[in-house]
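Researcher: Next sequence.
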Amino acid sequence: LIVVFVELPKSKEEEEVTPEPEEPSDDSSEEEAAGDTEMDFLRNLFSSTLGLGSADKVLDELTLDGVARYIKSGKCDYSSVTPSVSTAAGIPDFRSPGTGLYANLQKYNLPYPEAIFQIDYFKVRSSPCCFLFDFYQPTICHYFMKMLKDKGLLKRCYTQNIDTLERVAGLEGDDLIEAHGTFYTSHCVSFCCRKEYNLDWMKEKIFSDDIPRCDKCSSLVKPDIVFFGENLPVRFFTSMKMDFPRCDLLIVMGTSLQVQPFAGLVGRVSKSCPRLLINMEKAGQADPLFGLLGFGGGMDFDSDKAYRDVAHISTCDDGCLALADLLGWKVELEELVKQEHAQIDSQDKKEKAGGKSEAAKSSSASVAPEPKKEE
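Model: Next structure:
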């Protein structure tokens, strides 16, 4: 899923007085999000019943062309992105029958497929969880996000992916909200230690079938992904409260919009905010009855009252190329993908020949010995 927000620039005075959000505790973050959803429900009910908060129509046409004209109008100066588009890179999704990750885990003799992401099972046998993505390349969608950043349009990237491909494409630090965590870093599970390890260290352990143990206290080392039963990162909840009310354009790609609380992000933008879905089918549509009452913030592509939601039915890569073309960026995007893929291929060849990139050496030297054999 990719969600792109575009935020109108604030005045200098507004930027100076904008308060930083208070960081909730890990135990309360999801409960607070549920409370916010209930408040949104009540606000929608009262505004609909009383005729308050009428929304302005921002797009001149509910098409991809209309979205492109809106972006080019200069009213969209900052964007935030949340992706789940890595199937185009060859990474399987979780639930597709026959081809999804859960359908191809027989070799690990799991008691049930979801055990791969359960912390109790990981403590017993860690390696099945750590299916790594180092042989995959970012897609056109990932580089489209990078292009938004390079053009000064990216406010934030909210992603459900755990495969680090956004980082490989060039997003970093403050650019990213990794809602379901990431394999990019790992930490010792001991509260008294919490030593951090990088991806190269974890790959060495997994490829050699070693259980990753902390070299400081010998406790288990766990990738920083969100396992079943764990809370989403606090930063996800605090950032969404700041980012979404200011959003000027929301782009959603490659998702069924069924998994909460992430799917609920589409309802957190203002009523005037245009929302573009690039997907193989329409998703996230509001229940007709709830739509009449103004509840929920679901997508409305086809009704007589539709005024801001656009569905572009295609693959995510094709949709990004089409939008880039309308924006005059297509050649630039294709060249960026070509250059970046060539660089990744060159690095892979060096590693397969027995070498490691200088970046990998410097990042792993402090925490990991040289691997006994190359994979």
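Model: The radius of gyration is 22 Å. The first strand starts at residue 4 and ends at 7.
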